[in-house]
Amino acid sequence: MPDWLQLMIDSFPSLLYAGLVFTIPLTLLSFVLGLSLGFVTALTRLYAPLPLVALARFYVWLFRGTPLLVQLFLIFYGLPKVGIVFDPFPAALIGFTLNVGAYSSEIVRAVIESVSRGQWEAAYSIGMSWSQAMRRIILPQATRIAVPPLSNTFIALVKDTSLAAVLTVPELFQAAQRIASTTYEPLVMYTEAALLYLLFSTVLSWGQTRLEQHYGRHATHLGGQS
Amino acid sequence: MSSENYMVQLKNVNKWYGNFHVLKNVNLNVKKGERIVICGPSGSGKSTTIRCINRLEEHHQGEIIVNGITLNNDLKNIESIRRDVGMVFQHFNLFPHLTVLENCCLAPIWVKKVPRREAEATAMRYLEKVKIPDQAKKFPGQLSGGQQQRVAIARALCMNPDVMLFDEPTSALDPEMVKEVLDTMISLAETGMTMLCVTHEMGFAKSVADRVIFMDGGQIVEENEPNEFFNNPQNERTQLFLSQILNH
């Protein structure tokens, strides 16, 4: 067996462990929290009074306009200067959540607005309240449209979690880095890390296809619908 | 006649879109069981008038009274009026992510808190009335336009409304489907339902309407029972409009 293959096999458990214990939980947690934040931000931008709208816009502007790496450094290395100290994992979680929140809020806002006004009117005309219409009529239709763009955000996030390595979170990429520096085999180790990220995002893409099929079951013939 | 006998009353209703005065002192009294057809050129305010009745549009001056309740800005008041007023739209506006049956049951279940089984039985009864019970499990996108509009009528009826508003219900349909929807509306009229229909289907107006109202420029220009309206229109604008739509 060639040396490089032997190294890959030997290091695989460490990388998989780092992936399953840090990369995937960090991805899932920050996606769920970020999407919730994005949802609240989107509703704020669409329906809240003006000062809150301005606040939401400012947040989105700030986090979309600055590099994720800089945001993570500010949270982990910058904030301790003013007495706010986080452990590496929570610092990464906060950074990714705020970042996902900003990006996904734009998606949520767009898909809610893409549902036609006639759907609101029909819901109102049969006596539904705003929240009933939102929950039963608008969101189910918006969700279907949101699956592809949100999957994009999600897959980007899987890969972006590798940035947590610079906050000393022992996730997949950091595990590869550690082994690469002791074995002097960066080509092998980073290839292995890349393959694992590829595996994770491929599995998640399958999830996207399943979700699209689930939400798209009514969308076979949409002709005549406005 | 005392106001209790009126199902819908509009008193000096005015509305503006910005500077554009879209409804000018509209006065209209609709008795229980009365069938009204509203016609007029596009932009005359006829759709806006009926959309004000269930507050899809807000009026700026005057009073709208539905079934004894005066419409105001209170959400509870608006929602309670909407429960009593059914509406059928030009573009159907069925909920595409729900089956035909779910479209019909949704509001009874969530708004009126009717048990699901009871709501489904009621929905099936109305789907039979509009002659499409066999499509109950399909999604709206799998139905023809005429079928979708009949589902929309059934969906509105499932709330057991006191008044039905029709906003150009046949305008978006292929010609061969107009009749099936009109037949449904005619049989609904025969049950004694109070109806306000914005439509250019003059055959429907002649056979069903108690009164035909002609609007132009945001005003009610003329109103009369159908025979007089069609045979002996008084206003110049009504005469012009009728000559345009009847002699093409």
Automatic annotation (TrEMBL), chain A:
Gene Ontology terms: cellular component: ATP-binding cassette (ABC) transporter complex
Ranges for domain ABC transmembrane type-1: 16-208
TM segment ranges: 20-46, 58-79
Gene3D superfamilies: MetI-like
Membrane topology designation: Multi-pass membrane protein
Molecular function per GO: transmembrane transporter activity
Alphabetical GO biological process terms: amino acid transport
Subcellular location: Cell inner membrane; Cell membrane
Keywords annotated in UniProt: Amino-acid transport, Cell membrane, Membrane, Transmembrane, Transmembrane helix, Transport
Similarity section: Belongs to the binding-protein-dependent transport system permease family. HisMQ subfamily.
Protein name (record): Cysteine ABC transporter permease
TrEMBL record, chain B:
Locations listed in the record: Cell inner membrane
Gene3D superfamilies: P-loop containing nucleotide triphosphate hydrolases
InterPro entries: AAA+_ATPase, ABC_ATPase_HisP-typ, ABC_transporter-like_ATP-bd, ABC_transporter-like_CS, MetN_ABC_transporter-like, P-loop_NTPase
Transmembrane parts of this sequence: none
Membrane topology: Peripheral membrane protein
Molecular function GO labels: ATP binding
Domain ABC transporter: 8-242
UniProtKB keywords: ATP-binding, Nucleotide-binding, Transport
Family designation: Belongs to the ABC transporter superfamily.
Protein name: ABC transporter ATP-binding protein
